[in-house]
Amino acid sequence: MTRQQYILIGSVTLLFFILYFACETKPPGQQQVEQSRMLQAEATNVNLLMREAHDELPASQLSTIQALQQELSQASGDSARTAVLQQLSGRWYESGYPAIAGHYAQEIAETDGGERAWSIAGTTYAICVQRAVDAKVREFCTQRAIVAFENAISLNPDEVQHQVNLALTYTDSPPPNEPMKGVLMLRELEQTFPESPLVYTTLAQLAIRTGQFERSLQRLNQALEIDPSNLNAICLLAQAHAGAGNATEAQRFDQQCRNMQNEN
Questions:
Q1: How far apart are CA 15 and CA 256, in angstroms?
Q2: What per-residue confidence (pLDDT) applies to 165?
């Protein structure tokens, strides 16, 4: 894996394949009602996405998915259904349809009810947000990613990963009336979790994206003070120094990044 690939993976924080194979302030009932209203207002729906995908898939991929859908209809018991749902989610993801993969991951989460399952569903939708070209698909995935990550946070408010993922979703697909919402959430997390390297590397990544290389260097150095062996911070430092025109430092951190990747 190249350094660039590693950094790209870091932007979504939790890879779908790795995972797969703030206290709650609203009453659960109120949160469920709000989430239900959000999903009812979706720009598109998964049935439409599936019909369109069926028309686009090669025959070999379509036959495999149809066989799994038939198997799902015959599965009895939660564990059997979950096993087939995992395969369906994986197949749709591999075929290039993370929105549909997220739908099946969400079905698993709704049955499982655990934070990890909701995090997987949210991450899958978040990947869709990053990749979607169609505005309706992007909005569909944004809404569902938000719901999934909020559910994960409600189950474990102390897990910074879920909150960073939610903030990144808002950063990648900001509300029209709150374009800085994701960035502001990350800055709040910096105050709430001052010992989390993840918050600093995420902020640094956003600074690199917008050409703020000196600011990214500051954030990455803060991350290394907390965790001197943080691979993501070290690899990002190579990119930040390169952007800032520090060729020697960029080369040094690039080599360190490659060495650590080879060790792993």
A1: 23
A2: 98
Separation CA 150–CA 251 (nearest Å): 40
Token pair for residue 166? 């939610």
pLDDT attached to residue 23: 34
CA distance 108 to 128: 18
Residue 264 — pLDDT band, cuts 50, 70, 90?
Answer: confident
CA distance 190 to 192: 6
Burial 160-170 (b: 16+ CB within 10 A, else e): bbbbbbbbbbb
Amino acid found at 53 = A
Distance, CA of 21 to CA of 58 (rounded, Å):
25
Report the C-alpha gap between 170 and 164 in whole angstroms: 10
Q: What is the pLDDT of residues 113-163, one digit of tens each?
A: 999 999 999 999 999 999 999 999 999 999 999 999 999 999 999 999 999
Euclidean distance between CA atoms 181 and 131, whole angstroms: 20
